[in-house]
Automatic annotation (TrEMBL), chain A:
Originating gene: LSM1
Chief place where the protein resides: cytoplasm
SUPFAM superfamilies, alphabetized: Sm-like ribonucleoproteins
Protein name as catalogued: U6 snRNA-associated Sm-like protein LSm1
Gene3D superfamilies, per the entry: 2.30.30.100
Species classification: Eukaryota, Metazoa, Chordata, Craniata, Vertebrata
A GO MF label: mRNA binding
Transmembrane segments: none
Domain Sm: 5-80
Organism: Pelusios castaneus
Family as reported in the entry's similarity comment: Belongs to the snRNP Sm proteins family.
From TrEMBL, chain B:
A GO molecular-function annotation: RNA binding
Name recorded for this polypeptide: Protein PAT1 homolog 1
Any one annotated GO CC term: nuclear speck
Low complexity bias locations: 366-378
Gene source species: Pelusios castaneus
Similarity section: Belongs to the PAT1 family.
Lineage, top ranks: Eukaryota, Metazoa, Chordata, Craniata, Vertebrata
PANTHER family in the record: PROTEIN PAT1 HOMOLOG 1 (PTHR21551:SF2), TOPOISOMERASE II-ASSOCIATED PROTEIN PAT1 (PTHR21551)
Disordered as annotated region, ranges: 1-41, 152-186, 310-352, 366-398
Keywords carried by this UniProt record: Cytoplasm, Nucleus, Phosphoprotein, RNA-binding
Pro residues biased stretches: 317-334
Places the protein is found: Cytoplasm, P-body; Nucleus speckle; Nucleus, PML body
Residues in mRNA decay factor PAT1 domain copies: 473-716
């Protein structure tokens, strides 16, 4: 059944496995069960996947209801190609640890940068929570 | 509290009198009165009272339906008070036709409830049943019901105004305007999808005294034997009795949760009572058959059952295809008056009446296709190999599949289609229309050339809505001073009164003047551009218009073209055109140049020539200004087209302008700066070439032509060739195109030696390049 040819509609995507990228940077993988006119999504058997470098870890989350405006992009996962990845899956604890380390490193470098700029009399405008402005 | 047996007991003696009076007053007031605390307060026999009222209601409803009347003084339980208020309000309001749906609709009519689509059983009468079903719930949850009922009663007038509504309403048709204030929170928000039954456990609802079977929407349903079945009249009393007699789990609300009720009402509002909703009603009331035979509960109801029973049913049965299988009714038993008598064999469709008929048909066809697909797939013995069947199998194995029903998908689809409604698609979605037109042209061309099989490319047909003009009339109340300022989505209120005041300062600085002038030019460009877009659109409008309108359209178009030209040349009515200044200003701006290029095809030859001459006259200046933008070359093509039509006299004057010679050339200047500048610019050089080429064309076409005899032309040619020879090759610009007849042109005016020089310099011969 071809719903609305020539348009982008999520109806064809229902009951398929999707990868959803959210605005806060999280990556969710789950079966898309339901949608509505705002592209609010209901994800089933959802797993939050954290990527650090070449490793990733999955945290099972259950059912997600995502408000449409928070979705950056989403795409269907080809189940056959899903396992065909160079990335290495690790345990949750490990990936969280890796993530923490990565955050720390980033923060350190950020701090140094800000320091250097301050010494030169410059400043980076702070990115607010409203990232679209 | 202040009662004492005797005043002597009162310890305080001073305020004896005060207390005495108090006591007397107290004696008058019976604080523990009967109504509050006594027998009058206890409404123990509410069921009987309800039944009485229900009968009364029944009578009034039937009476009302018989006379088909608009009796407004009905003893209506539901929303009785609200109706009174509404009536009073409606009498106050002057304007009866409130066209703005976003504002409270104080007008209320009391039409009989429209027959829900298809159900023509007199017993199974929508309104009556609705009311009765709602009856027991009155005392419990009145506000939410009344609001919805209020809204519900307005559906018929709105249905009449259907064609008007759609242009104003952005909401799905099911909803209607909030009435008095906002609807209570518990009411279903407008725009919620059709909801499934929220009652999870059917198995618990077994305890109904008699098997109730309102209708058999499913072909496999085996209705209870006739004698055991209850009429809908009795049906409604069942919940009452069941409530009494049965230990219903407290979580299960009496008959319907308020949400479901609202759902019912919402569904009725949409124009038809959804049969599946009735199914829910029936299911809820207690369908022992359902519990006994889960397989029968196909469709929504079954899905919500607990995994234990429901999914097993699903594993067994194929996933139910598209809409509820209500269309497949084979009433196997007599007494079918209780069953759903649907005269039309069509399947239940979501409300698609507002969609384009072709789209509706397409949707319907697709649904049918899908159904047949499902059927055939399921029916096959797995002979089909490949991705399709494996996908279907996956879906079948997936116990959570189809949680979103086909109906809900259609509903979302419907909303998305509604968003595409447009009164003027070319205005709203120009690029989309153009893109698809181009695609179609390509496809048509391909089909013409290649005799391959015609590819069925499904096209999205967007619904067309007629444009309707509405003048907003503000709501006025009788006897009030002034107008009620009700602002809504459709008529936003003016919050700020901004008045444009033009500055008339005498001591404006020069910079400001310049800036203002530039701004003025920009405004002119914008205005002219709008005219241009309009004129370009006339062809399409012409095709769409009626015969009678066409002359008028042509006139308009001509007028607009004249306006454009006047704008370009800065001609105000009643003023002799004196300077090129205005035009030059426009040409200094990038957008202006592009606009001139687009306007040129529409102008008459005279006007176009005028433009060309003006350009030539000011070319060095324009070249200087164009240094950054480099947009002048865009003018070349329209210029060349114009040149093709110009007579020799104009050509000569053009060349003259390019060379910047006054009418009577006297002193030959060693170096013609004007011309030099022209030659050093790409556009200038190309333009010159074009002019020369045209001249040559004219010369060669007529044997004895004026051009040859014209001294001016010859002089100009000499000048041009002189300059061309003089200028160093490095300084010479690279022209966009070198016309082929230049060689023969030059050969008339220069000797062989110089000709050779020119040849190499200008790369006039094809081979050298």
């Amino acid at each position: 059944m071809n719903y609305m040819p020539g348009t982008a509609s999520l109806i064809q995507d229902i009951d398929k496995k999707h990868l959803v990228l959210l605005r806060d940077g999280r990556t969710l993988i789950g079966y898309l069960r339901s949608i509505d006119q705002f592209a609010n999504l209901v994800l089933h058997q959802t797993v939050e996947r954290i990527h650090v470098g070449k490793k990733y870890g999955d945290i099972p989350r259950g059912i997600f209801v995502v408000r449409g405006e928070n979705v950056v992009l989403l795409g269907e996962i080809d189940l056959e190609k899903e396992s065909d990845t160079p990335l290495q899956q690790v345990s949750i604890e490990e990936i969280l640890e890796e993530q923490r380390v990565e955050q720390q490193v980033k923060q350190e470098s950020e701090k140094l940068k800000v320091q250097a700029l301050k010494e030169r009399g410059l400043s980076i405008p702070r990115a607010d929570t409203l990232d679209e402005y | 509290m202040f009662r004492y047996q005797s005043l002597e007991d009162c310890p305080l003696d001073e305020d004896e009198d005060a207390f005495q009076t108090l006591g007397e007053e107290d004696e008058d007031i019976d604080q523990f009165n009967d109504d509050t605390f006594g027998a009058g307060a206890i409404d123990d026999d509410w069921q009987e009272a309800h039944e009485r009222l229900a009968e009364l209601e029944d009578k009034t409803v039937t009476v009302r339906e018989q006379e088909d009347g608009v009796g407004s003084d009905e003893m209506d339980l539901l929303g009785h008070h609200e109706e009174n208020l509404a009536e009073r309000l409606s009498k106050l309001v002057i304007e009866n036709e409130l066209e703005d749906p976003a504002i409270m609709q104080a007008v209320q009519t009391q039409p009989p409830m429209q027959q829900p689509g298809g159900l023509n059983s007199s017993i199974w009468d929508g309104s009556a049943v609705l009311r009765r079903i709602r009856g027991p719930l009155l005392t419990q949850e009145m506000p939410s019901v009344s609001v919805l009922e209020y809204a519900l009663s307005q559906r018929p007038p709105q249905a009449r105004e259907d064609d008007r509504d759609l242009s104003e309403r952005a909401l799905p048709r099911r909803s209607s305007s909030p009435v008095i204030g906002s609807p209570p929170v518990r009411a279903v928000p407008i725009g919620t999808p059709p909801k499934q039954t929220a009652v999870p456990n059917f198995n618990q609802q077994i305890l109904c005294p008699k098997p109730v079977h309102i209708r058999a929407p499913v072909q496999q349903r085996y209705p209870a034997p006739y004698g055991e079945r209850m009429s809908p009249n009795q049906l409604c009393n069942v919940p009452n009795s069941s409530l009494l007699g049965h230990p219903f789990p407290p979580s299960v609300t009496p008959v319907l949760t308020h949400l479901q009720r609202a759902q019912l009402l919402g569904g009725a509002q949409a124009g038809r009572m959804s049969p599946s909703q009735f199914a829910r009603v029936s299911g809820l009331v207690g369908n022992p058959l359902a519990s006994m035979n889960p397989k029968l509960l196909q469709g929504r109801v079954g899905q919500m059952m607990s995994p234990a029973s429901g999914f097993r049913a699903f594993f067994g049965a194929p996933p139910p295809p598209a809409p509820p299988p209500s269309q497949q009714q084979h009433p196997p038993c007599p007494g079918s008056h209780l069953q759903n008598l649907r005269p039309q064999p069509q399947m239940f469709r979501p409300d698609t009446t507002h969609l384009h008929p072709q789209h509706r048909r397409l949707l319907f066809q697709r649904q049918q296709q899908n159904r047949s697909q499902h059927r055939s797939l399921n029916g096959s013995t797995g002979d089909r190999a490949g991705h399709r069947s494996s996908h279907q199998e996956q879906l079948r194995k997936d116990p959570y599949a189809n949680l979103m029903l086909q109906r809900e998908k259609d509903w979302v689809s419907k909303i998305q289609m509604m968003q595409l409604q447009s009164t003027d698609p070319y205005l709203d979605d120009f690029y989309y229309q153009n893109y698809f037109q181009k695609l179609e042209k390509v496809a048509a061309a391909e089909e013409m050339h290649g005799d391959g099989p015609k590819k069925e490319r499904t096209k999205l047909i967007t619904p067309q809505v007629a444009k309707l003009e509405h003048a907003y009339k503000p709501v006025q109340f009788e006897g009030s001073l002034g107008k009620l300022t009700v602002s809504s989505v459709n008529n936003p209120r003016k919050m700020i009164d901004a008045v444009v005041t033009s500055r008339s300062e005498d001591d404006e600085t020069k910079e400001k003047q310049v800036r203002d002038k530039r701004r003025q030019t920009l405004v002119t460009i914008e205005k002219t551009y709008s005219l241009l877009l309009d004129v370009e659109d006339y062809e399409r409008r012409y095709l769409l218009s009626l015969e009678g309108e066409r002359p008028a359209l042509m006139e308009e178009r001509k007028q607009k073209i004249c306006d454009m030209y006047d704008n370009l040349r800065g001609k105000t009515p009643g003023q002799e055109r004196l300077s090129d200044d205005h035009f030059v200003q426009i040409m200094c701006i990038r957008k202006g140049k592009r606009m001139v290029a687009r306007i040129l095809p529409f102008l008459s030859t005279e006007q176009a020539a005028d433009i060309l001459v003006a350009t030539a006259r000011n070319l060095p200046f324009l070249i200087k200004k164009d240094a950054q933008d480099e947009v002048l070359p865009c003018l070349l093509r329209p210029f060349s087209l114009v040149l093709y039509h110009l007579p020799s006299g104009t050509i000569t004057s053009l060349l003259q302008q390019l060379a910047n010679l006054p009418q009577s050339a006297t002193v030959p200047v060693p170096a013609n700066l004007h011309l030099a500048a022209v030659l050093q610019n790409k556009f200038g050089l190309s333009f010159l070439y074009l002019v020369l080429s045209r001249g040559e064309e004219l010369q060669s076409s007529h044997a004895a032509t004026e051009l040859m005899q014209d001294n001016q032309w010859t002089e100009l040619m000499f000048m041009a060739t002189q300059e061309l020879l003089r200028i160093p090759q490095a300084a010479l610009a690279k022209p966009m195109s070198t016309p082929s007849n230049l060689l023969s042109l030059f050969s008339r005016y220069v000797d062989q030696q110089k000709l050779n020089v020119l040849e190499t310099k200008l790369q006039l011969v094809q081979g050298i390049r």
